[in-house]
Amino acid sequence: MTTFKCKRCKETDATLKSRKELFCDACFIKFVSMKQRKLMMVDEFYRDHFKVLYGKDLVDDGKSKILVPFDFSSSSLSALDVLLGLLKEQNMQHRGRVGFTLELLTVFKSDEDRINIENMWKELRSSPLYDESAWGFVNYHMVNANNFFESAKELQHIVLHDQDFTTKAIEWRNESDGEYSIQTLLDRCPNRNTRNDMWIFIVKHIVKKFTYQQENIKVILWCQSMTKMADQIIGLVVKGRGAQIASSLDSENADAEYGDRFKNLYPLKNTLLSQLDAYCIIRGLDKYTLNYEVKSDLFLNATDTDTSDTKTKNIRLVKNMTINELARKYFDDIEGEYSNIISTVLRTGDKLKPPKIETSSTDNHHGSSKCAICLNTIYDDPAEWLRNIAVNRGHPVETEEEQSYYDQWKASKIGLQNEEYLTLRNHAWDNGNDIDLCYGCTINLNGIKTKELVWPKNDSEELQSVLAEYEL
Ligand SMILES: [Zn+2]
Ligand SMILES: [Zn+2]
């Protein structure tokens, strides 16, 4: 078998090939970690929160904390590995002093989830890969996703009008209206796509709310790879959430939706998912992944693991995939030879600016409002747009025959559901408040059979209601 030398050190035999370049294990680890470290030092703000500083340069009294949403994917494991490496380095060079500490946060959905996470975390903590001193700078937190509803001070029942697409909210009380949980919400979603869209928001909200409530956390370090960010960008476009792209990639400005308390950093945005997978395999971190399968495509001696069995499974599943999964599959498929498409999507997204808000309008209600569900700025009135493209009003009943058909329909299951919906709608329109939804959330709500959902009332009070942590 012919061997090739690593293109970086030109000494060791190459073990893998990424974006047409040959690497040995050691040079590849250095290459991937340097990309992350570079983005962690991208400007003065971030430099100050990661570097060891002395005297008057000290930021936050030397208690700079970095929040890392941690989901046991190859991305979060490799990001943590680089961070622990940096902490070890600082600790040695500055005799026990480091520039920052880490707060890791995992959001879980069920008890089964929690047990798996707990066990995996214990394994990682006792891994021979790290010595105990590195963990001295790391705190681990677990939050149950149900906190999203349970910790909310006030819940509201949001109802969409089936004809003119406007929305009203009425108060929801668990005591009289019934318990509302993450599972209730996800069960009511009409498809995996809406479910996925809601879930992404819920996790993001918990992470940001948790950060908002901690002292001295000015940075959330998100572990998304370039591949994942590209699929998010495409997903946002397809879901009619294109206006959110700019803010979803913004690492320069403080997060305005959460009181300007922190910035969002994406230090893996120049690294492909396949590169992070390879990083984990070389470092021996692949055994600590959860709900995630590491791929070994980049290795020169990689055997074809895509057996006919998994191939047929893939074909069968395409139909049921969410938009994000489809975009991911597309990027997965092209990652090898056409990985520059992925970086082009990301770079284009990164250059986008948020749409301009029309200030000429004297009507303050539109143009600058926030979506009551996903908190994003609403730039155009989606209700008006939807009214213009949809014909939603029924034809009035005129003959006896039509009346009998109508009565039959009313007695059917759909008819009864509709009856229930109309009662709720009338109640909301008599007693509720006007609220605004963005286009993406209006479409989600319209897809739910009953065109309603329960959601926390998002205001500064909601942000202060304490998230209960699960103690390990
Ligand atoms: Zn090398
Ligand atoms: Zn929305």
TrEMBL record:
One of its GO terms (molecular function) is nucleotidyltransferase activity. Pathway: tRNA modification; 5-methoxycarbonylmethyl-2-thiouridine-tRNA biosynthesis. It is found in: Cytoplasm. Keywords: Cytoplasm, tRNA processing. It comes from the Eukaryota. One of its GO terms (cellular component) is cytosol. Belongs to the CTU2/NCS2 family. Plays a central role in 2-thiolation of mcm(5)S(2)U at tRNA wobble positions of tRNA(Lys), tRNA(Glu) and tRNA(Gln). May act by forming a heterodimer with NCS6 that ligates sulfur from thiocarboxylated URM1 onto the uridine of tRNAs at wobble position. Prior mcm(5) tRNA modification by the elongator complex is required for 2-thiolation. May also be involved in protein urmylation. This is Cytoplasmic tRNA 2-thiolation protein 2.
